[in-house]
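Please check both lines for our workbook:

___
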Amino acid sequence: MSKILIIEDEESIAELEKDYLELSGFEVETERRGDVGMKKALEEDINLLILDLMLPEVDGFEICRRVRERKDIPVLMVSAKKDDIDKIRGLGLGADDYMTKPFSPSELVARVKAHLARYERLIHSNMKENDIVEIRGIKIDKTARRVWVNGEERNFTTKEFDLLTFLAENPNHVFTKEELFREIWDMESIGDIATVTVHIKKIREKVEQDTSKPQYIETIWGVGYRFKL
Protein backbone atom coordinates (compact mmCIF):
# COMPACT_ATOMS: atom_id res chain seq x y z
CA MET A 1 0.00 0.00 0.00
CA SER A 2 1.44 3.37 -1.04
CA LYS A 3 1.83 5.92 1.74
CA ILE A 4 0.97 9.56 1.05
CA LEU A 5 1.80 12.60 3.18
CA ILE A 6 -0.42 15.68 2.88
CA ILE A 7 1.00 18.95 4.21
CA GLU A 8 -1.97 21.31 4.24
CA ASP A 9 -2.88 23.95 6.84
CA GLU A 10 -6.59 24.05 5.93
CA GLU A 11 -7.96 21.14 7.93
CA SER A 12 -11.17 20.73 5.94
CA ILE A 13 -9.25 20.44 2.65
CA ALA A 14 -6.70 18.05 4.13
CA GLU A 15 -9.42 15.79 5.53
CA LEU A 16 -11.33 15.78 2.24
CA GLU A 17 -8.21 14.83 0.31
CA LYS A 18 -7.39 12.19 2.92
CA ASP A 19 -10.87 10.62 2.73
CA TYR A 20 -10.84 10.33 -1.05
CA LEU A 21 -7.32 8.90 -1.15
CA GLU A 22 -8.06 6.37 1.59
CA LEU A 23 -11.16 5.24 -0.28
CA SER A 24 -8.84 4.58 -3.22
CA GLY A 25 -6.67 2.30 -1.12
CA PHE A 26 -3.86 4.63 -0.04
CA GLU A 27 -2.42 5.06 3.44
CA VAL A 28 -2.59 8.77 4.20
CA GLU A 29 -1.06 10.99 6.87
CA THR A 30 -1.74 14.73 7.23
CA GLU A 31 0.23 17.56 8.80
CA ARG A 32 -0.74 21.23 9.14
CA ARG A 33 2.59 22.89 10.00
CA GLY A 34 5.30 23.27 7.40
CA ASP A 35 8.24 22.60 9.71
CA VAL A 36 6.72 19.42 11.17
CA GLY A 37 5.54 18.26 7.76
CA MET A 38 8.98 18.77 6.27
CA LYS A 39 10.55 16.68 9.04
CA LYS A 40 8.10 13.85 8.33
CA ALA A 41 8.65 14.10 4.58
CA LEU A 42 12.41 13.82 5.03
CA GLU A 43 12.49 11.15 7.71
CA GLU A 44 9.50 8.90 7.07
CA ASP A 45 9.10 6.33 4.33
CA ILE A 46 6.49 7.92 2.08
CA ASN A 47 5.72 7.29 -1.59
CA LEU A 48 4.19 10.63 -2.57
CA LEU A 49 3.91 14.13 -1.12
CA ILE A 50 0.95 16.49 -1.56
CA LEU A 51 2.19 19.93 -0.63
CA ASP A 52 0.37 23.22 -0.09
CA LEU A 53 2.38 26.37 -0.81
CA MET A 54 1.17 28.68 1.95
CA LEU A 55 2.07 27.00 5.23
CA PRO A 56 2.96 28.21 8.72
CA GLU A 57 6.65 28.17 9.77
CA VAL A 58 8.05 26.79 6.48
CA ASP A 59 6.43 27.33 3.07
CA GLY A 60 5.89 24.72 0.40
CA PHE A 61 8.69 26.03 -1.83
CA GLU A 62 11.30 25.43 0.86
CA ILE A 63 9.86 22.00 1.70
CA CYS A 64 9.94 20.99 -1.97
CA ARG A 65 13.54 22.15 -2.31
CA ARG A 66 14.66 20.23 0.80
CA VAL A 67 12.79 17.06 -0.17
CA ARG A 68 14.25 17.13 -3.68
CA GLU A 69 17.76 17.24 -2.22
CA ARG A 70 17.15 13.92 -0.50
CA LYS A 71 14.35 12.03 -2.29
CA ASP A 72 12.98 11.28 -5.77
CA ILE A 73 9.37 10.67 -4.73
CA PRO A 74 6.57 12.40 -6.66
CA VAL A 75 5.65 15.85 -5.27
CA LEU A 76 2.28 17.42 -6.06
CA MET A 77 1.96 21.11 -5.20
CA VAL A 78 -1.47 22.58 -4.51
CA SER A 79 -2.27 26.24 -4.01
CA ALA A 80 -4.97 28.88 -4.27
CA LYS A 81 -2.37 31.08 -5.98
CA LYS A 82 -3.05 31.11 -9.70
CA ASP A 83 -0.05 33.15 -10.82
CA ASP A 84 2.09 31.42 -13.41
CA ILE A 85 5.23 32.58 -11.62
CA ASP A 86 4.35 30.40 -8.61
CA LYS A 87 3.69 27.41 -10.83
CA ILE A 88 6.96 27.95 -12.70
CA ARG A 89 8.87 28.32 -9.43
CA GLY A 90 7.30 25.21 -7.92
CA LEU A 91 8.00 23.06 -10.95
CA GLY A 92 11.48 24.54 -11.16
CA LEU A 93 12.19 23.35 -7.61
CA GLY A 94 11.35 19.80 -8.64
CA ALA A 95 7.61 19.44 -8.13
CA ASP A 96 6.04 16.90 -10.49
CA ASP A 97 2.66 18.61 -10.73
CA TYR A 98 0.85 21.81 -9.71
CA MET A 99 -2.88 21.99 -8.98
CA THR A 100 -4.79 25.20 -8.40
CA LYS A 101 -7.52 25.29 -5.74
CA PRO A 102 -10.37 24.62 -5.93
CA PHE A 103 -10.07 21.24 -7.66
CA SER A 104 -12.16 18.09 -7.52
CA PRO A 105 -10.94 15.36 -5.15
CA SER A 106 -11.42 12.81 -7.93
CA GLU A 107 -8.97 14.74 -10.13
CA LEU A 108 -6.45 14.70 -7.28
CA VAL A 109 -6.84 10.93 -6.91
CA ALA A 110 -6.39 10.46 -10.67
CA ARG A 111 -3.20 12.51 -10.69
CA VAL A 112 -1.84 10.71 -7.62
CA LYS A 113 -2.39 7.33 -9.28
CA ALA A 114 -0.79 8.52 -12.52
CA HIS A 115 2.31 9.87 -10.79
CA LEU A 116 2.75 6.79 -8.63
CA ALA A 117 2.40 4.50 -11.65
CA ARG A 118 4.97 6.54 -13.56
CA TYR A 119 7.31 6.52 -10.58
CA GLU A 120 7.04 2.72 -10.23
CA ARG A 121 7.81 2.24 -13.92
CA LEU A 122 10.82 4.51 -13.61
CA ILE A 123 12.12 2.69 -10.53
CA HIS A 124 11.79 -0.72 -12.16
CA SER A 125 13.38 0.45 -15.40
CA ASN A 126 16.40 1.66 -13.43
CA MET A 127 16.82 -1.61 -11.57
CA LYS A 128 19.46 -3.61 -13.36
CA GLU A 129 19.32 -7.33 -12.90
CA ASN A 130 22.51 -9.09 -11.95
CA ASP A 131 24.40 -10.78 -14.77
CA ILE A 132 24.01 -14.51 -14.06
CA VAL A 133 25.62 -17.54 -15.70
CA GLU A 134 24.05 -20.91 -14.81
CA ILE A 135 25.27 -24.31 -16.05
CA ARG A 136 24.28 -27.67 -14.55
CA GLY A 137 24.13 -26.72 -10.90
CA ILE A 138 26.76 -23.98 -11.01
CA LYS A 139 25.44 -20.45 -10.63
CA ILE A 140 27.84 -17.57 -11.22
CA ASP A 141 26.69 -14.05 -10.31
CA LYS A 142 29.05 -11.87 -12.32
CA THR A 143 27.67 -8.66 -10.83
CA ALA A 144 28.10 -9.67 -7.20
CA ARG A 145 31.08 -11.96 -7.99
CA ARG A 146 29.58 -14.90 -6.09
CA VAL A 147 29.38 -18.59 -6.97
CA TRP A 148 26.99 -21.33 -5.85
CA VAL A 149 27.42 -25.05 -6.50
CA ASN A 150 24.16 -27.00 -6.13
CA GLY A 151 22.77 -24.18 -4.00
CA GLU A 152 25.79 -23.94 -1.69
CA GLU A 153 27.93 -20.82 -1.94
CA ARG A 154 31.66 -21.33 -2.48
CA ASN A 155 34.40 -18.76 -2.03
CA PHE A 156 36.72 -17.99 -4.91
CA THR A 157 39.78 -15.79 -5.23
CA THR A 158 39.69 -13.05 -7.87
CA LYS A 159 41.58 -15.04 -10.50
CA GLU A 160 39.75 -18.27 -9.71
CA PHE A 161 36.45 -16.46 -10.23
CA ASP A 162 37.62 -14.85 -13.47
CA LEU A 163 38.93 -18.13 -14.84
CA LEU A 164 35.78 -20.09 -13.94
CA THR A 165 33.55 -17.38 -15.42
CA PHE A 166 35.53 -17.20 -18.65
CA LEU A 167 35.39 -20.97 -19.17
CA ALA A 168 31.68 -21.15 -18.26
CA GLU A 169 30.85 -18.36 -20.72
CA ASN A 170 32.68 -20.23 -23.48
CA PRO A 171 31.50 -23.83 -22.96
CA ASN A 172 32.81 -26.70 -25.10
CA HIS A 173 35.63 -24.51 -26.38
CA VAL A 174 39.12 -25.87 -25.76
CA PHE A 175 41.60 -23.25 -24.55
CA THR A 176 45.33 -23.76 -24.26
CA LYS A 177 47.07 -22.79 -21.05
CA GLU A 178 48.75 -19.95 -22.91
CA GLU A 179 45.39 -18.60 -24.10
CA LEU A 180 43.92 -18.76 -20.59
CA PHE A 181 46.97 -17.06 -19.13
CA ARG A 182 46.75 -14.20 -21.61
CA GLU A 183 42.98 -13.87 -21.11
CA ILE A 184 42.86 -13.92 -17.30
CA TRP A 185 46.24 -12.53 -16.31
CA ASP A 186 46.35 -10.15 -19.28
CA MET A 187 49.99 -10.84 -20.08
CA GLU A 188 52.18 -13.21 -22.02
CA SER A 189 53.01 -16.43 -20.24
CA ILE A 190 56.77 -15.83 -20.57
CA GLY A 191 57.29 -19.56 -20.50
CA ASP A 192 55.64 -20.08 -17.10
CA ILE A 193 52.02 -21.20 -17.27
CA ALA A 194 52.01 -23.38 -14.18
CA THR A 195 49.74 -20.86 -12.46
CA VAL A 196 46.91 -21.86 -14.83
CA THR A 197 47.23 -25.50 -13.81
CA VAL A 198 47.24 -24.54 -10.13
CA HIS A 199 44.11 -22.39 -10.49
CA ILE A 200 42.27 -25.10 -12.44
CA LYS A 201 43.09 -27.55 -9.64
CA LYS A 202 41.72 -25.15 -7.00
CA ILE A 203 38.55 -24.49 -8.98
CA ARG A 204 37.92 -28.22 -9.39
CA GLU A 205 38.25 -28.72 -5.65
CA LYS A 206 35.40 -26.25 -5.20
CA VAL A 207 33.02 -27.30 -7.98
CA GLU A 208 33.63 -30.98 -8.68
CA GLN A 209 32.24 -33.86 -6.64
CA ASP A 210 35.17 -36.03 -7.69
CA THR A 211 38.24 -34.14 -8.87
CA SER A 212 39.65 -37.30 -10.43
CA LYS A 213 36.59 -37.47 -12.71
CA PRO A 214 35.74 -33.83 -13.44
CA GLN A 215 32.22 -33.17 -14.74
CA TYR A 216 32.71 -29.49 -15.48
CA ILE A 217 36.29 -28.56 -16.37
CA GLU A 218 37.87 -31.22 -18.54
CA THR A 219 41.53 -31.66 -19.37
CA ILE A 220 42.12 -32.16 -23.07
CA TRP A 221 45.51 -33.83 -23.01
CA GLY A 222 48.14 -32.12 -25.09
CA VAL A 223 45.90 -29.10 -25.69
CA GLY A 224 44.35 -27.48 -22.61
CA TYR A 225 41.00 -27.22 -20.85
CA ARG A 226 37.33 -26.84 -21.67
CA PHE A 227 34.12 -26.31 -19.70
CA LYS A 228 31.76 -29.14 -20.64
CA LEU A 229 28.04 -28.45 -21.07
Observations:
- The longest strand covers residues 3-7.
- The chain has a mean pLDDT of 89.
